[in-house]
Amino acid sequence: MGRKWNNIKEKKASKDASTSRVYAKFGVEIYVAAKKGEPDPESNQALKFVLERAKTYNVPKAIIDRAIEKAKGNSEESYTELRYEGFGPSGAMVIVDTLTNNVNRTAADVRSAFNKSGGSMGVSGSVTYMFSPTAVFGVEEKTSDEVLELLMEADVDVRDIAEEEDSVIVYAEPDQFHAVQSAFKQKGITEFIVAEQTMLAQNYVTLSGDALVQFEKLVDALEDLEDVQQVYHNVELPEE
Asked: pTM (2 decimals)?
């Protein structure tokens, strides 16, 4: 599963390159999660999950607090969660998750990004069947055997554990996210390279030349959109 982790690293590196954009998107996601339930992560699992993700992206406390306070207030601003699916060059498949307060604007922006980058929008279900919802954790300074042992002690089942460079990556079912997280925390591990629920492709494609340039243009265009929260794909990106 190392190939899949490479794509997650690439995505995270891309987002880290524009922190103000990342922080703004997390602000919306935190607000929506807090607005749906109690604005307290201890009683709101959705909010707790978002805050754990925000931590891995070093989102400032001020932005988190501001979003939660906004949810506590009388703001009537509402957002809709929408998923778009589409295709890039040479068999590339793309999933785009959005949070929007203007559905028509978001649909037009996503469609335009696909069209301008040589891609095309697909119908609902045309791409997601080739992806698996997955909880992913990345930790450092541990071996795969040590991670396996602590998960077994906590009686937590996972799909796979892989070593890559100086990291150990854990892949689990989405509903095991908090169980895996708790197992790590019981052993004093609270810092993660990645701690999120993602969509991993069942098969990957490799692009080169103009097709790769075109695909990277598509991903950049989508991630630049204000309403786009996550972009998932099945392309094996080259290492930097």
From this structure: 0.87
